[in-house]
Amino acid sequence: MVGVLLGIAVVEMLVVHLVIVAAVGWIAAIVVGIIDVAVIAYLALLLRSFKRMPVTLSADVLTMRTGFLKSVVVPVAQIAGFRRNWDADALKQESVVSLALIGWPNVWLELDPPVPRRRGKPISAIAHKLDDPVAFHAAIAALSAAHGH
Fold this sequence. Notes:
three-stranded antiparallel β-sheet; alpha+beta
């Protein structure tokens, strides 16, 4: 979805620049162009960071990431389980962190005890949109079984 947004941003940049040049002039087009190039570069870097900084699971730690934007480190022992259903009100709670940038989350982890944040209230649940939620559930289940949970 971020790749689609990047493509739309490139097309928007070209069309808007033609309109700005015709309506206002080259100086305004250059200013808007600098802003557009910065936004496109940011989106391209974000898209690349998803591959460089994926969600990782080791024997003791689960790191939930959204590229370079957000990261939550959770000890595996604190994963209480998965939630099957949730609504928008549940996502808006202060103790829930939604790492799904675009779209509805397809994974919800309950944490017990909650994970402390750098600032604010602790995190009791994490919602995320993953490419393969079934494999993620299986990996967590296998790791939890290996630890006797």
